[in-house]
Fold these 2 entries.
Entry 1:
Amino acid sequence: MKQFQYTRPATQQAALEAITKPGTKFIAGGTNLVDLMKRGVTAPDKLVDINHLPLKSISQTPNGLRIGALALNSAVAENELVLQHFPLLSMALQAGASPQLRNMATVGGNMMQRTRCTYFYDTTMTCNKRAPDTGCGALEGVNRMHAIFGANPQCIAVNPSDMCVSLAALDAVVIIAGKKGERRIPFTEFHRLPGEHPEMDNHLGKDELITGVEIPENSFAKNSYYLKVRDRQSYAFALVSVAAGLVISDGIIKQARLAMGGVAHKPWRLFDAEKSLIGKPASEESFKQAAQIAMQGAKAYQYNSFKLKLAPATITEALKHAAGLV
Ligand code: SF4
């Protein structure tokens, strides 16, 4: 591993000043960044350790819940307010990684984690995300884990997070600090599709810091479910995952939220499928129709065509669980 400098600024302001130097990165739990450094995928000159900044709290606001960027994944998953108001977030967090990793990983770090595309981690292979304009090794390679939505020949990688899928479904907002002050981005707009710049995973500026996430109050707690399909029961990334939330009254769907993971470069919100559910009975038939709508525009590659069947089946099953039909 390349040698690097380490600093531990005392304040958020000092952290923001430290990050302006080229080759500098923030480090919190380090559960992804340290792996990337060990493998030579990234080689920062300096790490700015933000672990001690006061960004760990989970608190109620007049409109919902605010979660600090340094709150641990395990702390959020077990938090009483989260369990009571946003069980979908807790389910998604519990589905991710392993207990040890959840005890180290932070909310902000989870949002910033990089794809698990094996070609990205293997520095002997071509990868536009790791080294722009070198090609995409996965395009003609073993692309079983890769995208079926929003990809292009530049990059067909997927975002690996479970937590982010639930936050996209819950209309969360990302709170960001920069030298010019605070700004907010809807969670669904924080991560980006590869476009012409697959090296960029999100819209966070190089000199900005995620300080927290806010989730607006909603009525999905009673009927929500996170379903993750993976190769083994734990410590595996999603082949496909679905976050589903419903508001049901007298058997009729009044509101719906749906997002998928393991299918795109960003958490993939299913707006059209959600709309199709409003006013329909909370039945398997309605859920199957919504799943078909969700799959419009899907495109598979050589080894991941199974996702074209797995994804709608997972949407249907997640909605059945959310509605209490299974
Ligand atoms: Fe790199 Fe993206 Fe291609 Fe994977 S899919 S090799 S991350 S460019």
Entry 2:
Amino acid sequence: MATKEFKAESKRLLNLMINSIYTNKEIFLRELISNASDAIDKSYYRSLVDENVSFNKDDFYIRITADKEKRTLTINDTGIGMTKDELENNLGIIAKSGSFAFKNENEAKDGVDIIGQFGVGFYSAFMVSDLVTVKSRAVNSDEAYKWESKGVEGYSIEPCEKENTGTEIILKIKESTDDEKYDEFLDEYKIRSLIKKYSDFIKYPIKMLVKKSKLKEGSKDEYEDYFEDETLNSMVPIWRKNKNELKPEDYNQFYMDKHFGYEKPLKVIHSKVEGVVSYNTLLFIPAKAPYDFYTKEFQKGLELYSNGVLIMEKCADLLPDYFSFVQGLVDSADLSLNISRELLQHDRQLKFIAKKIKEKIKSELLLMLKNDRDKYIEFYKNFGRQLKYGVYSDFGSNKDVLQDLLMFYSSTEKKLVSLGEYVSRMKEDQKFIYYATGESIERIEKLPQTEVVKDKGFEILYFNDDVDEFAIKMLMKYNEKEFKSVSSKDLGFESDEKEDKKETEENKELFDFMKEALKGKVKEVRASKRLKNHPVCLANDGDLSIEMEKVLKMMPDNKDIKADKILEINTNHQMFGAIKKAFAEDKDKLKMFSNLLYNEALLIEGLPVDDPVQFANDVSCLIK
Ligand code: ADP
Ligand code: MG
């Protein structure tokens, strides 16, 4: 029988397992049992869509057998089984789901400490065994195959006999050493306690033939041994238990077992709802975004159970997109077991549950913001973008749900604040909620446009995320207060505006000349009181802001998009004297000055200068 090689990355992971000095080797059993349980789930799931597969609840179980003499521990399941190809693909290559993601994420780190943080999968078997044999027969197939491996050298696959559908994994347990007592994995008591510890919530019975003793018939003091099948797990799923029976560790363990995430969740929401529709939910807010969260591959959704039995692995309809980061499950006895995916979408009960879940997540997040701000900020740093996208998408139809959950960096508080907090602090003469946009907090902080607003003592929200301004434009108002960009044409300061008008009027010819010199680039040139120390800036007229122009330009077909720009001049700045002089004496020079000032303003906005070579030459010209 030819031996095949493992794929390179599998080899590496295997090596890690075999040579692991990891003390928690016992988790291999949890991994294999969870795979067995998944396989039974799949069988059940298949029976819903395939007439040829039947699901009789009593036929589904996991069996553990320990043989001390042969030093074998066998894990048998009656699940979906694997074909020859599947044996090859699923066991010869690291599975995509858990293990592979882990490897990608943690390449740089030392393997040892990460093993314990999440499910490591099938290969963990090699931590305790020197030979692993997998016999499997796939559902609806009459062929069975045997996969066998001693570790890194490779594996072999050949046909074998197997009576029932399902998978049998036989571990040849390593000999004990001075440091490691592998023997204990063959010990009934140990196996029992491992199952209680890790696999108690597995919903299929985990059976083992256990040795018992009873009084011999007809005797009063003589005992005899006999064997009896016992189910070692309590099978009550965690979400059906009472909250007060459960410890945070229980939830965390469940979360990891389910591969919902690699580190413990930020927040657990466990609730039982009774009413028109009754259901249990167990929801988790992850501490970090999953590695594929911002890719197309990411699928949102909750597991959906009908009375404890899985009917859908990722029910997308249960979660709005803006809460797509939530993991977990819903279990309702009011849902029909045999409901098809198509029907499910229109199911009234399901819609009702989805609505309630949405409200629940929102209220839990608001509570977190109120009572545990640091935690909320941690959450917001990971998923705030998602909420902002939520405000923006669907034509703003979700803004009411989301607006209280938004946070932005504040110029006065120097930290993230909510819109509610901003509004509660607004000055009596303040009409708008002011914001400034830019690439980073540091850059926004220096924007000339912020000066006058800060001078008035008004707080400014800093928008440094692409989506921020789009979201706010969709929101339009918060608590009756309109949002106003510090770069917008009018800031709502009446006395300043009057003066600007007056000065612009006084220098009309000069500004008209500059506008002509910048034809097609700016809509207007004018005097501005918004500038204190800086000579120039760009202001914005109309709905499309300069920041939005930047974002939109990065998308295909938007190359020509343009915000209406106004070049604002600080007439109190000393450079204005030179401008006036050039206007009187040297118009060509003023043309050059106009271009220079415009380019300066572009640079401040984080936009590229129009013609870098010309710009450089003009600047050099001045150094004379
Ligand atoms: P994961 O469970 O995260 O997918 P594993 O390494 O634990 O990764 O398992 C790899 C794959 O092998 C599984 O995804 C599954 O397809 C297959 N597999 C493992 N054990 C069984 C089993 N008992 N029955 C059927 N398929 C199994
Ligand atoms: Mg697994």
